[in-house]
Amino acid sequence: MITKVVMPKLSDAMETGKVIKWIKHEGDSIKGGDIIAEIETDKANVEIEAFGAGVLRKVVVDEGGEVPVGDLIAVIAEPAENIDPVLAAAPKAPAAPAPAVTAAPPDPAKPAAVPSASAPGAVPSTETYKSAPETGKVVPMTPESGRPQLAPAAAAAAAAPTGPRLVASAPAGAPAAGARVKASPLAKKIAAQSGVDLAGLHGSGPGGRIVRRDVEDALAAGPAPAGAAAPAARAAAPARAPFVVPARTDAEYEDVPLTAMRATIAKRMPLSKGPVPHFYVTSEVAMDRAGELRAELNALDGSPKVSVNDLVIRACALALMRHPGVNASLQGQAVRMHHRAHIGLAVALDAGLITPVLRDCDVKPLVQIAAEARDLADRARAGKLRASELSGATFTISNLGMLDVEEFSAIINPPEGAILAVGSMLEKAVVVDGALAVGRRMKMTISCDHRVMDGAMGARFLQDVKRLLEEPLRLLV
Amino acid sequence: MAIMTYREALNQALREEMDRDPRVFVMGEEVGLYDGAYKVTQGLLKAYGDKRIIDTPICESGFTGIGVGAAMLGLRPVIEMMTFNFSILALDQIVNSAAKMCYMSGGQYPIPLVVRGPGGPAAQLAAQHSQSMETYFYHVPGLKVVRPTTPADAKGLLKSAIRDDNPVIFIEAETLYAVKGEVPDDPDFTIPLGKAIIRREGTDVTVIAYMGMMYRAMEVAEELAKEGISCELVDPRTLRPMDTDTIVSSVRKTHRAVVLEAGAGFAGMGSEIASEIAEEAFDDLDAPVERVTGENAPMPYAKNLERLKTPSKEKIADAIRKVCYR
Fold first, then answer.
1. Quick one: pLDDT at residue A12?
2. What CA–CA distance (Å, rounded) separates A472 from A290?
3. Is A131 a residue whose pLDDT tops 50?
4. What's the first-to-final CA gap in chain A, in angstroms?
C-alpha cells in the first residue's frame, strides 16, 4: 500500500507548515504510529506520526522546507511498489478530478521543489494503489482513499480547509462543493479536541455517519499528534539572578528572521488593535483572603499546587457564566454569546507568546484547573501542544504578575470579545475601617471589544471577578 | 419504611395533609359514601366527616369551579376526577380560571388547588377512556403537572402538590394502583415538585420515561444489559416544571437518548424532551434523540390491537439499539 504523507492542517489559521526535522529517513522501515517528522506550524511544533506501514521511500520536502497545507511531503510504501505516479501526481496534477488532495496546481513560489515529474498526461487518472485500512487515522497522513462512498467527502474535507488556493483550483462541478462529512455532533467534538481528521474516517453509522466509536477507534490506532510532555527546561523562579550586561559586539545591528510564531503575532495583532475598538476597565482586588486560602490549599498533602492565576481563572469562569455578554464575540451580523468558559492562557515563550485553551473552566473544580493549567503551560514551553489545544477560547487571561508588573492592558485576541490583564499581588498600605494597615492588592484590567459590549458590562463583570476573589471560598463551591 | 400499594400511599398522603392543615378538603364523584371509585379515598368520610369529604353530582365543570372559588378564599381543595378523561369537561375551569387567576389578579388570588385522579391507558378501556391526558395540561402556563411512578413518589409528590400554592394537575394510573413499594412513614416526608430521579444508572443511553412506560423500560434495560447495553433510566416525575438539568446531564454522560411516551407522539412530552436535549446537549449527542410513542390512532378496544397501539418492549429495545448503533 502506498501512503502519501501531506502537510497537515493543524489549526484554523495554518496555511503553510515547515518541516523542522525528519526523524525517519529514506529507507527506514515504518510502522503505524511511528513519529516520522516534526513540523513547525504558525503556533507550535508538532510531531507527526506514520499512518501506513512500509518503508519511507521518498522525502519530498527537505528539512527547513515550507509548503502549503495539503502538499505532499513524503511517501511511504513497500520497497517494491512503484511510487512514481504518486510523485508525479502530487505537484502537477492540473485539473484532474482524481484525488482532490493532489489537485493543487504547480506553485512556482513553493520553496521545496519536488523531484521533477513527468508530464501530466503520464498520470493515470485512476489509482494504481490500494485504499486506506478500515480505521482511518490521525491528521498528519492522508492515505489514498479508494473507497468509493467516502472519496467525495474525504476530498471535500481535505480541500475545503486548505484555503482559497486549493478550492479555487477544484474543477467546476467537482463533488467538493456540496459534499460534507457526516458525523455526529459528539464525534465532531471529540475529533476536534483530539486532532483527528474526520475526512479520513470510515463512518459506521447509518448512511456512513461517523460516530463516536469511529473516532475512538482511530484514536486507539495511534496516539495523538503531540507526544507526552517532555520535562520543560524552564528556569526556576528567578531568585535574584546576577545582573550581567552582555559584551559589545562588532556588528552595529543584526536582522533576526521572523519565526513562524513571531510572524503570526505580527500579522494578527494589528488585526485586533486596528479594527477592534478597545476600551479598558481597571479594578483593584483585595487579595488577602485569596492569598490565605491559597496557602492553606497548598499546605494540603497530595493536592496540586494552586497559583494565584488559577484562582483568577476560576473566578473569571464563574463570572463569565453570569455575564455572557462579556463571554461573547462578534460574528458578522450577530453577537455570539458563549455558554462555556473556554479560557485562553497567555504563556510567554522565549520566541513569543502562545495561548493554549483550558476548556470548560466553568464546570471544572479549582484543583483540576490548577493541574490542567500547569500541564498546558509546561507543554506550551516545551512546544508540545496539540493543535486542538490552541483554538476555541472564548476569553483570555494574560498574567504578568510574576514580572513585578503593577498593571497593564492587553490586546484582544479576536474573535474573542475581551481579555483580562492581571498584575502582581503587592503588599500595600491600605485603609481598613478608617485605619492604615498592610494589605495584599492586585490590579486587573479588562480590555473589551466595544462593538460587542459596553463599559458598564465590562465593569460589572470585573466587579464579580473582584467579589469572587475577595470571597474566595466561592471558588471552591 | 412500610410496604404499601400506590393506592394506600395516596390515601395516607391525603390523611396526613388533612391532619396537618384544616384547610385541606376532598371533593368529587363518589369520594365519600362509596369510598372512591378506585378506593383512593377509602375511609376518609368516616375519619373526616362530610364537611371535608364532599360527594358531588356528576358535573366536573361545576365542582372544579367550586374548587377554584374555594382556593381563592383560602382553602386548599383536592378535586378528584373519577378518571382524567372526565377532566375535559372541566377544562375551562382548569385552563382559564385555575391556571390564570393568580396572574390576572396581580397575585391577589393564588390557587392552591390539586386536581387528581387516574389517567393514561389502562386495560381494554377503549378510545374514550385510554388516553394520556397530561398533554392537555402541561402546555398551559400556570399549571404544574405531576405523574408519579412509584408508591413513594405518589405519596411524597401528592403531599407537595397539596402544599403548593399553585394549581397542580396530579395524574395517577389505574394500572399502578395495586403496585406495591416501600413508602416512608414520616409525616414530614415529601418529594419536591420539579425534581427528576435516576431510577437506574447506566453508561450507554439515557431512557426517559414515567408511569407504566418506566416499568416497561426497567424490564427492557434488564434484558439489554445481557447484550452489553447499559441503560440509564430517568423519571421526570414532574412534567412541569420539568427537571431538564437531570435529563441533560444524564445525556451528557451517555451521549444518547430515547424518550418513551404512552400517548400518541405528535407534539407530546417526547417532542418537548427531545427538543430540550437538542438545544442543551447537541454537541454531546452521538445519535439523534429517538422517541417511542403510541401510534397515532384512538385506542382500540380489541386486545391485540391495543397491544399494537402502545409502545411495546420490542419497540423500546429496537429504539435503544438504534441509537447505540447496534
1. 65
2. 5
3. no
4. 55
A360 sits in the region (left: phi over 0; alpha: psi -120 to 50; else beta) called left
Q: Give me the pLDDT at residue A43, please.
A: 67
Which of A403-412, B76-85, B134-143 is least confident? A403-412
Fold of A3-220: OB fold (Dihydrolipoamide Acetyltransferase, E2P) (2.40.50)
Which residue of chain B is at minimal alpha-carbon distance from A211?
Answer: B286
**C-alpha distance from residue B59 to each of A222, B25, B34, B82 (Å):** 72, 18, 17, 11
Where are the domains positioned within chain B? 2-183, 197-323
CATH of B2-183, one of 3.40.50.720, 3.40.50.170, 3.40.50.970, 3.40.50.300: 3.40.50.970
**In chain A, what residues touch B287 (CB-CB under 8 Å)?**
184, 205, 211
Most confident range (mean pLDDT) of A233-247, A328-342, B38-52 is B38-52
Q: Give the distance from residue A371's alpha carbon to the nearest chain B alpha carbon, in angstroms.
A: 23
The single residue of A25, A202, A278, A450 carrying the catalytic annotation is A450
Task: Please report, for chain B, how many H helices and E strands are present, in that order.
Answer: 12, 14
Choose the closest CB to B285 out of A185, A204, A213.
Answer: A185
| Domains of chain A, residue spans | 3-220, 273-476
Cβ-defined contact of A212 to B283 (cutoff 8 Å): no
Looking at per-residue pLDDT, the higher value among A351 and A117 belongs to A351
- The answer to whether domain B197-323 has CATH 3.40.50.2300 is no
Q: Which residues pair with A336 in a beta bridge?
A: A329
* CA A40 to chain CA centroid, nearest Å: 12
Q: Return the pLDDT at A192.
A: 81
Identify the CATH number of the domain defined by range A273-476. Answer: 3.30.559.10
Give the whole-angstrom CA distance, residue B285 versus residue B257: 8
Contacts of A211 in chain B (CB under 8 A): 286-287, 325
Average the pLDDT over each of A240-249, A449-458, B180-189 and give the range with the smallest value.
Answer: A240-249
Q: Is the pTM of this model over 0.80?
A: no
